[in-house]
Design goal:
single chain; 638 residues; mainly beta; Methanol Dehydrogenase, Chain A; 2 domains; 5-stranded mixed sheet; 5-stranded antiparallel sheet; 2% helix; globular; disordered C terminus
């Protein structure tokens, strides 16, 4: 199992789920794949759903959780493999409501609660922690932005929420006495949260382009939620908000943070080091150092940045993506990033020298003009040396990367995607079985799946089976999330869950993995995880254990398989340490699988011992030494 704990899978925001062993171009077809269920919630789901595997829920046991945040200021923890709701909590305090439209802006409507995708730290607290930002207001129109830290297993506040307040030296919009002031009514948090180096990073958007507003980036200590650093990137000007279409701040392996801001004041008078003389970085791709507080250490903006801002051609309308290290034609390693805005140009920057501002040219690694059209209000994806872009009213297109350069278009979808275009995600088993997933902002929403190596090949879409796979209405921030053979899509007041409809395209072991949440278990287990043997032949018994879903795949929680000898015959015994699961539930057991010629006589029976500390399943028929076999042992609640 692989968690999805942050927007677009990782801090580079690549959107690639690389451990998908079940879904493939062979089985993502309308006869085998489709809508499994809709999970109803109380508000629009603008944040990408997140996935946490093997969370121990008090009084329930171990479950895989789907975490869903809504614009009604609620957070839900669903069974990612079913319909059970384990907890739901509201971020609203007594006598508060969500924010409605501010300044008649309908970018987030009809209410504003939790817009940005939260981030989860599995190591924070005893159960893991969900970090998020929520907006609310009182009946007297006092507005709040609060940072929350929720226990992953219970939803309870692990720490008292922090009310966001800030000031920064400057004379720009909403300044007083030499400081610009953060007004919580004037902003919304729609840029997905970033967690790196023990700090939580947020970046803030305004309501439409209604002034006064400036560009704020803040960090909060993960352990206490205390505000740890504040930076305003247009302190002596205006605008410069972080739009990003729901995409997130980025971070590299060294802990540097990257952000892409929209139109705003840019000081074209530069210091000797090439930085804006008044510290105004509107419409720029920024690199921050985080050691000792947020500070701009490098940046890029285009040579016509002032006219682009004046024409509302935001650089930050979409999201930036950090590419993995690549080797150029001179055999030098390059650390690159890509960013695109409303001008439809793909800007490729070297993160060690981003290019800064030059009035006559763009001094960057590569600039690709005319490759996409319609502007970008979405987020690209990366997989296996391909970049994927979905502009407004444009096809989703793939571009190969070779020698640290973006090449000419490789393929494109036959469909075009209306506003806001398409934010793709990719599922793959390493470099194999790549599938590109994207949604159309229509009613009903349409989920598309394409062969990631050739986008002209559409594998599936949710209109192909008539109304069978129809779910709710589209939503402009939709980003498909793929985990353990399922695709989760946030919509208007629901999450649609797509997956395989049957097992006919799966091998037995894959069937078990799909049923039991992708546990990586192609093992023959014996004492301390070693494979049992028979006459020196290893892996005589290959088993798959599913506790539906009461036990995880950690080594210390796997069953111990052994061959017990009685009167010269060997019998299969599987022992589960029951301390790892709920102690007060009676379980039933079912054994199935490829049993032919495995047990003497070709059949098998089992006995189940269900004690306070163990589940023991023992076959009463001797095992025959006939090589590897598959068995599925399912232990389930009554």
């Amino acid at each position: 199992m692989t968690d999805v704990l942050t927007y677009h899978n990782d801090n580079g925001r690549t959107g690639q789920a690389l451990h998908e062993e079940i879904l493939s171009p062979a089985n993502v077809v309308t006869n085998h794949f489709g809508l499994l269920r809709n999970l109803a919630v109380d508000g629009n789901v603008d944040a990408e759903p997140l996935y946490a595997a093997g969370v121990i829920i008090p009084g329930v046991g171990e479950r895989n959780l789907l975490i869903v945040a809504t614009e009604h200021d609620s957070v839900y923890a669903f069974n990612a493999d079913g319909t059970n709701l384990y907890w739901r909590v509201s971020m609203l305090l007594s006598n508060e409501t969500t924010s409605g439209e501010v300044d008649s802006c309908t970018q987030v409507a009809p209410e504003i609660g939790v817009t940005a995708t939260p981030v989860i730290d599995r190591q924070a607290g005893s159960n893991g922690t969900i970090f998020l930002v929520a907006m609310s207001r009182t009946p007297t129109s006092q507005y709040f932005q609060r940072v929350h830290a929720l226990d992953l297993a219970t939803g309870r506040d692990r720490l008292p929420p922090t009310v966001v307040a800030a000031s920064f030296p400057g004379t720009g919009d909403n300044s007083t006495s030499g400081n610009v002031i953060f007004n919580p009514e004037q902003y919304k948090e729609r840029t997905s949260l970033l967690l790196v180096g023990g700090a939580l990073y947020t970046a803030w958007a305004s309501h439409c382009d209604v002034r006064p507003y400036t560009g704020w980036v803040m960090s909060f200590d993960e352990a206490s939620l205390a505000q740890s650093s504040i930076l305003n990137i247009t302190p002596n000007g205006n605008e410069g908000a972080f739009w990003n279409s729901g995409a997130g701040l980025n971070a590299d392996a060294e802990g540097n943070v990257y952000a892409l801001d929209g139109n705003g004041t840019f000081d074209t008078t530069l210091t000797a080091g090439g930085f804006p003389s008044k510290g105004d970085y509107g419409n720029a791709f920024l690199k921050f150092s985080t050691a000792g507080g947020l500070a701009v250490t490098d940046y890029f903006t285009m040579d016509n940045t002032v006219s682009e801002s004046g024409g509302d051609q935001d650089f930050g309308s979409g999201g930036a993506l950090l590419l993995p290290d690549m080797t150029d034609a001179s055999n030098n390693v390059r650390q690159l990033a890509v960013a695109t805005g409303k001008d439809s140009i793909i800007y490729v920057v070297d993160r060690s020298n981003m290019g800064k501002f030059h009035s006559a040219t763009n001094a960057i690694w590569q600039q690709v003009n005319g490759a996409i059209s319609g502007g970008l209000w979405s987020m690209p994806a990366y997989w296996n040396n391909f970049l994927y872009y979905g502009g407004v009213n444009d096809h989703v297109k793939s571009f190969p990367l070779a020698q640290a350069r973006v090449g000419a278009k490789n393929s494109e979808t036959s469909e075009t995607f209306a506003f806001p275009g398409c934010t793709p995600s990719v599922s793959a088993n390493g470099a194999a079985n790549g599938i590109l997933w994207g949604t159309a902002n229509t009613s009903p929403m349409v989920l598309h799946a394409y062969n990631a190596t050739n986008l002209a090949v559409e594998l599936y879409n949710s209109n192909q089976a008539g109304s069978r796979d129809h779910s709710g209405g589209g939503n402009k921030y939709i980003t498909p999330m793929i985990a353990s053979a399922r695709v989760y899509v946030g919509e208007v007041k629901e999450v649609a869950v797509f997956g395989l409809l049957d097992d006919s395209t799966l091998t037995p072991l894959q069937t078990w993995r799909d049923t039991n949440f992708g546990n990586p278990s192609n093992v023959g287990a014996g004492e301390n995880g070693a494979a049992p043997t028979h006459d020196g032949v290893p892996n005589l018994i290959k088993y798959a254990l599913g506790l539906n879903p009461l036990i995880a795949a950690q080594t210390n929680q796997l069953p111990v398989a052994s061959l017990q000898t009685n009167n010269g015959a060997e019998y299969l015994t599987l022992t589960v340490n029951r301390a790892a699961i709920a102690p007060d539930v009676t379980y039933s057991v079912e054994v199935s699988g490829d049993l032919t010629n495995w047990f003497a006589g070709g059949t098998n029976t089992v006995t189940l011992t269900n004690t306070a500390t163990q589940l023991v399943v023992q076959d009463t028929t001797p095992v025959q030494p006939v090589g590897d076999r598959f068995i599925r042992l399912t232990v389930s609640e009554p």
